[in-house]
């Protein structure tokens, strides 16, 4: 399902960040013609800034950080979002925006919340010492319920398992049918095997009317079947074939002959 079909970036006379990054200066429109759009480009191209601004324009919620409208790290994105117009086929309020750092912030926040609940339970045991077990149980119920909710959604805790496992747990618990998901370098905590599992999860959610817009450096994610790939290093913007991407060519060449590259280091 394609919810968001097109964005238009209005030209600005400003010559400062974020209006002076190559992507914003050179791209006026971007079409979304398939459920999965992959954005590729070197560091400094403006992929992250673009996705942040798009998320603000869409009104996405974030994972593991403040409101997208108050997060101080997104002030530049809010400024640029005023110049972005959206075209929808079917507007959706479902979905979220995720940066790699948001995942780690979220995992830490959930761990802190769980520990605070456990500490509160211990305090209640002291406060209710000498009172009936029934009274203690009633007082503990809200805290126990919250802890069970965290465990039900994320197992023993996002901080207990590996980053890759935790990331997949988070995604599986947060993805909902009919959503628009804007993801900035989601491969960061994932091993190659986990990236393949992540592709499988995306495919499953696409079948449930989800749309994904993903900025990535991973050739594995770039290989998602039938994805629309835009190379943000080249203007004017046009759809790019997987085999033609420099990321893919370089990775293939390196794996075929790593010594050729490493001997010059």
Automatic annotation (TrEMBL):
The keyword Ion transport applies. It is a peripheral membrane protein. Keywords: Cell membrane, Coiled coil, Ion transport, Iron, Iron transport, Membrane, Transport. InterPro entries: AAA+_ATPase, ATPase_AAA_core, P-loop_NTPase, Rad50/SbcC_AAA, Siderophore_ABC-ATPase. The keyword Magnesium does not apply. It is found in: Cell membrane. One of its GO terms (molecular function) is ATP binding. Residues 33-235 form the AAA+ ATPase domain. Its main location: membrane. Residues 107-134 form a coiled coil. One of its GO terms (biological process) is double-strand break repair. One of its GO terms (cellular component) is plasma membrane. This is AAA family ATPase. The lineage of its organism: Bacteria, Bacillati, Bacillota, Clostridia, Eubacteriales.
């Amino acid at each position: 399902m394609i919810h968001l079909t097109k964005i238009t970036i209005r030209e600005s006379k400003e010559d400062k960040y974020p209006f002076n990054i190559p992507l914003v200066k050179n791209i006026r429109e971007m079409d979304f013609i398939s459920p999965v759009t992959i954005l590729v480009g070197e560091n400094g191209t403006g992929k992250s800034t673009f996705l942040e601004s798009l998320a603000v324009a869409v009104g996405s919620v974030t994972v593991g950080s403040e409101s997208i409208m108050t997060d101080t790290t997104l002030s530049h994105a809010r400024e640029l979002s005023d110049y972005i117009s959206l075209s929808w086929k079917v507007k959706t309020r479902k979905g979220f925006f995720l940066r790699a750092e948001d995942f780690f912030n979220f995992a830490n926040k959930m761990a802190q919340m769980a520990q605070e609940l456990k500490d509160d339970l211990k305090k209640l045991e002291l406060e209710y010492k000498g009172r009936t077990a029934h009274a203690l149980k009633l007082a503990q119920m809200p805290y126990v319920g919250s802890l069970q909710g965290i465990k039900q959604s994320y197992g023993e805790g996002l901080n207990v398992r590996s980053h890759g496992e935790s990331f997949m747990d988070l995604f599986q618990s947060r993805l909902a049918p009919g959503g628009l998901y804007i993801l900035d370098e989601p491969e960061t905590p994932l091993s190659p095997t986990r990236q393949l599992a992540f592709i499988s999860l995306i495919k499953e959610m696409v079948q449930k009317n989800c749309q994904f817009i993903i900025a990535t450096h991973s050739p594995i994610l770039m290989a998602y079947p039938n994805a629309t790939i835009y190379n943000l290093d080249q203007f004017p913007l046009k759809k790019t074939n997987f085999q033609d991407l420099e990321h893919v060519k370089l990775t293939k060449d390196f794996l075929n002959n790593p010594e050729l590259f490493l001997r010059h280091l």
